[in-house]
Write a structure and sequence with these properties.
- The chain contains 14 helices and no strands.
- With about 350 residues, it is an all-alpha fold.
- The chain folds into 2 domains: about 60 residues, no CATH class; about 250 residues, no CATH class.
């Protein structure tokens, strides 16, 4: 049995593979068996084998996935709801796209910061060498020439040391931070923590909100399509919302839906508490009036997800220029730290 969750690409491959075989008329247990049989001994194969034994003994696909402890709770719950709604294939295809795009996004994030991170690491070594060895040599020379030094020369030396230490500390902190974020993005648990961190930054907060909104809308669509009443569907979908701002809105909307004095419909509650933007809320209202709330929620989930990916891509595209600017400043600080003592010595000698 797997001890940790599968990577996004593996979850995508599992969901997509099973969906394709279900569409071809292959039973679920055979689909899972064939997935395991196609792989050589690997962690993915072990996960598929565990799921297969559960399904072959009469269990559902969701129970098999849960038994492996290798799939996120969100994926397991969506598959379970899809089974109850008779829309297992559609849910699996949606999860396939979701985890494939998620893995692609984090892979792009890692590739965008890996090169700057390597340069920052090199700069950290250079700055550490400068502060630990080069600047003390200049200081020793200054002390030997103390009889002819002016106060301006000592000032230049002090400024040089301060610049060197500040640049070193900032570079080290940046390097460690980038390294930690890169490592976190490689695992499912780490990604959840990374998303929580990104939700606290102003320039990534909106993207993370849209991503959480996509998950919420997809869950709500699946539950509604399974025949669950909207109040229960709202409450169940809220369990997958980790974004603090969105969760507050969702819980308020749910409370309004079960208000005994003035109960609201799903569309009314979402509109009133601005869970969706006004345009999307109106789309949901239209879907409710035509009896296609689940289809509209599914469509909105896709729109939210695409908006989130576009926003994240824009942020990632700005990462490298920002790091390039930071590296330029760091190199300049290093040169200044080295040149200031030389200038001071030349003035003293002159």
């Amino acid at each position: 049995m797997a001890e940790t969750m599968l990577e996004g690409s593996a979850i995508s491959a599992f969901c997509g593979g099973v969906a394709v075989m279900l569409a071809a008329g292959i039973p679920t247990e055979e689909a899972v068996f064939m997935l395991a049989d196609e792989r050589e001994d690997s962690r993915f194969k072990a996960v598929c084998d565990t799921a297969y034994h559960v399904v072959a003994n009469g269990g559902t696909l969701s129970s098999g996935m849960e038994a492996t402890n290798a799939f996120p709770e969100y994926a397991v719950s969506m598959v379970r709801a899809g089974e109850e709604a008779g829309r297992l294939e559609q849910v699996l295809r949606r999860l396939d796209i979701y985890y494939e795009e998620e893995d692609r996004t984090f892979a792009k994030l890692r590739s965008s910061v890996s090169y700057p991170a390597a340069l920052l690491g090199i700069m950290s070594v250079i700055l550490a060498f400068t502060v630990a060895f080069i600047l003390p040599v200049f200081l020793s020379v200054y002390e030997n020439l103390s009889g002819t030094l002016t106060s301006g020369s000592f000032s230049s030396m002090n400024v040089s040391i301060i610049i060197g230490w500040v640049a070193l500390i900032i570079t080290l902190v940046s390097t460690v931070t980038i390294g930690v974020l890169s490592i976190m993005s490689r695992t499912a648990n780490g990604r959840l923590k990374l998303i929580a961190v990104l939700e606290s930054f102003p320039f990534t907060r909106d993207s993370m909100y849209q991503l959480a909104l996509s998950r919420f809308a997809a869950a709500l669509s699946t539950y509604v399509s399974s025949g669950v009443d909207t109040e229960t569907a709202m409450e169940a979908s809220a369990e997958f919302v980790t974004n603090v701002a969105l969760r507050k809105k969702v819980m308020k909307a749910h409370d309004a839906m079960i208000d005994s004095d003035n109960p609201r419909s799903l569309a009314q509650a979402i509109t009133e508490f601005e869970v969706f933007e006004p345009l999307y809320a109106r789309m949901l209202s239209v879907g409710s009036e035509t009896g296609s709330s689940d289809e509209m929620l599914s469509r909105l989930s896709t729109l939210f997800f695409e908006d989130a990916l576009e926003s994240i891509d824009r942020i990632i595209d700005r990462v490298e220029p920002l790091f390039a600017g930071f590296l330029t400043i760091t190199v300049g600080a290093t040169l200044i730290a080295v040149m200031l003592p030389l200038i001071g010595i030349m003035r003293s000698i002159g």
